[in-house]
Amino acid sequence: LKMSWLFYLPLRLLTVACLCHSIKASTTSSQQSFKTNLFNFYHSLILADGKETTIHLLKDIPKRYYFVLEEGRILAPFSVTVTPCDVPIEWSILMYKASPSFPGKATQGDHDTQEVSKSQKAPGIMSTIFNYKGNSVETYMGMSSHSALYLLEFLSTERDTHITVYLTTDTTSGHLYPELPMDPRIDVIGIGHTTVTLTWKHSPSVLQHRENIQYCLLVNEKHNYKSLCAAETAIRSSGMKLPPTLALSLSPYLLEPQQVMILSNSELSIINKASSGEVRQVCMGTRNTYTVPNLSPSTQYYFDVFIVNLLTNASAAYTGTFARTLEEPEPKVPELKDGKVIHVVLDGKKQKFYSLQYQARHKRTQFTFQLCRGQIRVHITRNGKTVASENLSGLRYFSLKGKLLDTYVVQLRSTEESNSSVKVQASPHFQKPLFPLLPESLKIKSFSKLRTCRSVTIAWLGTQEESKYCVYRRRIEEDQIWRELQSADRCSGPESRHKSEKVLCKYFYDLNLQRAVTTETIKGLEAGAFYLFDVYLFGPSGIPVRYYSKVVKTRKKC
Q1: How far apart are CA 114 and CA 106, in angstroms?
Q2: InterPro entries this protein is in (predicted)?
Q3: For the chain, which terminus, N or C, has the lower number of CB atoms within 10 Å?
Q4: Both 535 and 423 in a single domain?
Q5: Domain that holds residue 305
Q6: Is residue 485 a contact partner of residue 548, using CB atoms and an 8 Å limit?
Q7: Tens of pLDDT along 86-135?
Q8: Is the pTM of this model over 0.85?
Q9: Which residue, among 471, 479, 459, 475, has the nearest Cα to 527 in the 3D structure?
Q10: Residues 87 and 47 in one domain
Q11: Residue 161 CB contacts under 8 Å (≥ 6 apart), including other chains
């Protein structure tokens, strides 16, 4: 009867043991080396046939496996596929072929005894039939003799790692790994600012097992991966937790916080976010053309396509490629028109400059900035050279002298995380000013000694120019004070206030700035209450300037 390899294995082990025992008396260096090789066989693990085996390697410690074939097959084809999952490794296949006359007995005189003695000195042949060093997926195919034992030796010299090994002697019932086409390259057929379009030739496995095969694409900013095993290892080592074969099956995994899953149009996308960038895995069925969306402009990306067998989770890698997205087009810079006011809102989170451009029509140009909310940094250049740069506060004028047709660029940036806003105007120096003449200070003062349970007295500075001042009040709660003062929009006018909040409007001025001050007593208030007071100054153009808000509390008892 034909013995299975499992039954045949003990006989092989017994043969190896006998060989080790028989050569103990030998003293030559070749016999000692042969003894070492037999020892390696004896202390190796058996490699399963027809099954992918995961092997963990410790740095600088070799690991050995061996296999034998069924009895009765003189020549049998076999293949060994090794997939490194991280760093390059060294691996080799050694074959031991026993001598036909070893072991034996002398039965016919001295001549036969002499022959047996020779065979004892050379019990068999140990030879290396294949070796490889690298991190590519490598397959060895050969023909095996039933009288030979095979030893596979694996070594990692860089660090601890793991690999997968697949041995098969059945070459007629299909392959564990999907087949790659004759040309396994990925072609880049389109590049945009935020997209890259890829195509690749179909795998023969797709035509044979369409329902069990799919393509998966890996996108990252570091380098290409030669196997899906290596890609998953890199993702884990970067601090992202990747469930096993997450990209290969559509099973409902619970994602980690740094993962995002997108499922649309029968397409599974998984985005792993980490400090070193993001890694995207997209499985798109059997389509062999795909446009990768939502990329960053002017960034180099690496693309790897894997053909995956959904039943076995085995995969094969196409030859990876890379592409750089196009640079982001320069945004069109808005132009400032003479005398026209532009209201700019800046995103504090992005911390990017917002640019405005102005071409001078006269030699002198005046830029006016009214800070509405937050904190803003302004930077002004003329023909590429810096002429002003500072943080804005309240209302600020820049009067600059240059030449006709000079090009000014105004750059604005929020200096805090919250949004900021500002009004900007550019005009010839002689043009009537948009904003009114301002006093030395825009602060409102209150007099504590003049406070009563029903009234408070406030004061503010005026100018030498007759102007209109309007006073508004609003009762607030104590826990609202900080928010009201921080969020106040100093560019908004009285039109944003309720009519009931208006107290009065008055005109005044004084040519002597020392006496350009006015006071007002606001009556009809509630005892022990907080009130928010605002004063608006109106100039000839009608555009108001808001003083800094003031909060005053009336007395509880009088």
Answers
A1: 8
A2: FN3_dom, FN3_sf, Ig-like_fold, NDNF, NDNF_C, NDNF_Fn(III)_1, NDNF_N
A3: N
A4: no
A5: 186-242+276-324
A6: no
A7: 889 999 999 887 665 544 343 344 444 344 344 344 456 778 999 999 98
A8: no
A9: 475
A10: yes
A11: 56, 57, 84, 85, 86, 87, 89, 233
